[in-house]
# Entry
Amino acid sequence: MARVFKDDIVVSVDVGTTKICVIIAKRLGNGDVDLLGIGTVPSIGLKKGVVVDINKAVTSIRKAIREAEVMAGTMVEQAYVGIAGGHISSLNSQGIVPIKNGEVSQKDINTVISAAQAVPIPEDQQILHVLPQYFIVDSRDRVQNPLGMHGVRLEAQVHIVVGSVASVQDLVKCCQLAGIKVKDIVLEQLASAEAVLSYDERELGVAVLDIGGGTSDLALYYSGTIRHTRVIPVAGNHFTNDLAVGLHTTINGAERVKQRYGNLFVSPSDIGKQIQVEHVQGNRYQDVALKQVQDILKARAKELLGIVQKEIVQYNLEHFVTSGLVLTGGGSLLDGFRQLASESFGMPARIGYPKSEDQLPELLESPLYATGYGLLLHAMKKEKNNMINNLQGPMTYRVFMRMKSWVSDFF
Ligand SMILES: Nc1ncnc2c1ncn2[C@@H]1O[C@H](COP(=O)(O)OP(=O)(O)OP(=O)(O)O)[C@@H](O)[C@H]1O
Ligand SMILES: [Mg+2]
# Structure
């Protein structure tokens, strides 16, 4: 295979806690996407979205890239990489500037967004994304694109995502050592939202919760833009660990039980049923009631949904979730999660599957691949915008605006 980089090839790397997923796709002239290769391998060397063993993480990333390359029949050099982890936090900020010549220019927009970024950030933290939410031109509120509007005062409301410099450096380094240059780093829940939310949900207001292995990543959208993000350190692996402890079984045994029998609403006819579970010391099996499995999983599910609910109340975001809650990520595959979320929140809930106008390969048609596919969609959008105009306008800005080329700053 020749190591070539073709302009129309885009690559996404989702470095998750449980699996690494690499997708290679080709942009077609009519705007369609042709998926060429997918590589997915168990992730070793990462915990709660953060690299804990560089060598192991590099080996896993390299393996996933190789798998996707073989399937695609081409080698790749650059990729869009997702980031998550407990080190990520976010805040809303605003900036105000005078409009220079009575009419909003691109320069005014850039200046007001820069002004909105002037917030104190701890030294070990770095801005990852500045996501403009809306603008105010004099008394005209919630303007999506102020370019060309008349007035004297321009205000921007932005959402700022920050992360630990060291954690980002580790992730970038792992990708580089695995032979891939990082083109952009993208917050994972923004990618997942891109893959699973509809246009209407984003406009009317929705919360998307990506329940992964190590973290559950929350994002709230309203009026088409991001309002709030939070990384919650409770996810699928905690459910498994609870089962392992509660049932005195191995981690692998608990994972099997969760995926095969786990249900937050066991039917009355099955509630007394017993299943065979291996003992933690091996070599022997024990009988466990499905009710016990349900109770252990339900306690964790309630805890997670409770944290989300608390977050929404604490930040007065109730009126931003009119379309309800969308659960995605592998953890959302636990039977009964949708029902429990809907009951707990008193609003509609659904499971978010990656959506596409074209038929997706069967493997990608799962909440497990929402982030990987969303990263690819983001990459497509970004490449297209770069091609159309290097000087991005506010509507393209709105999607993801990079502060600076901080990835290349590191190396
Ligand atoms: N059928 C299933 N039922 C319940 N849980 C499941 C099922 N399939 C996968 N999971 C859980 O999904 C989790 C992995 O999800 P996912 O692949 O989205 O995580 P990740 O992206 O690797 O992790 P993170 O996003 O936290 O870094 C695991 O905890 C796994 O137990
Ligand atoms: Mg994930």
Observations:
- The CA atoms of residues 135 and 244 lie 50 Å apart.
- The longest helix spans residues 290-314.
